[in-house]
Amino acid sequence: MAITSERLNQTFSEGGAQEIYQEIKAKGDFLGFAQRYAFDTDYRVARTALWGLTKAKDEELSELKVIYNELIDQAMQTENSSVRRLTLNIIEKLKMNEDDLRTDFLDFCFEHMVSIEEFPGIQTLCMKLAFRMCTFYPELMDELKRTLEAMEIDYYKPAIKCLRKRIFCGRYK
Fold first, then answer.
1. Which domain of life is it from (predicted)?
2. Disulfide engineering: 51 pairs with which of 17, 43, 44, 59, CB 3.0-4.6 Å?
3. CATH (domain of 74)
């Protein structure tokens, strides 16, 4: 069965996302698929496309590096939390270089990792991405640690507490 917007609009299961991934893998066109569907204005289509892409191995997703900035823009601009989380998940899997640092994205990650209103999955992804961006500059790492120290940790879910602790203990890389 061919991948179409209509099909992506109707896929709501883990098995369906795995099928989408297997079909993308068979065609070997992760970039073309992402460009065609991951930025769709229909959030259900974009969500399912991104969900299928999250099943890919890091090396398979590496071809998405050319749309790295578009993925960041989508993560920062979408109002759909599922699309945001899945997009951040893909960004987190991509190799990040010092030249890739975008201060607007770093600010976004700082804001969303401490926001109590944000979903824990988005908070943890933002914390991981902020950490990765800050590793390029010691002064940014100091700012990250100060921000983490200032968190009123009792208000956060266990996943946030655990990741925060791992960063402080040097066990997160």
1. Bacteria
2. 17
3. 1.25.10.10
Cα(136)–Cα(90) distance, integer angstroms = 20
Q: Which residues of the chain have pLDDT under 70?
A: 1, 173
Is the Cβ–Cβ distance between 50 and 86 less than 8 Å? yes
- Confidence at residue 66, expressed as pLDDT on a 0 to 100 scale: 97
Can you list the pairs that 146-154 forms with residues at least 24 positions away whose Cβ atoms lie under 8 Å? 147/110, 147/113, 147/114, 151/114
CA distance 67 to 49: 15
| Whether 115 and 80 share a structural domain | no
User: DSSP readout, 9-65?
Assistant: HH--SHHHHHHHHHHHHHHT-HHHHIIIIIT-SSHHHHHHHHHHHHTS-HHHHGGGG
Which residue's structure tokens are 């299961």? Answer: 13
Residue 144 and residue 136 in contact, taking contact as beta carbons nearer than 8 Å: no
Query: How far is it, in rounded angstroms, from Cα 23 to Cα 2?
Result: 8
The whole domain housing 12 covers 1-95
Q: How far apart are the C-alpha atoms of 43 and 82, rounded to whole Å?
A: 9
pLDDT of the residue at 84: 98
pLDDT of residue 67: 98
Whether residues 101 and 91 share a domain: the answer is no
Boundary-marking domain end, from 95, 129, 145: 95
The SS3 assignment for 115 reads: coil
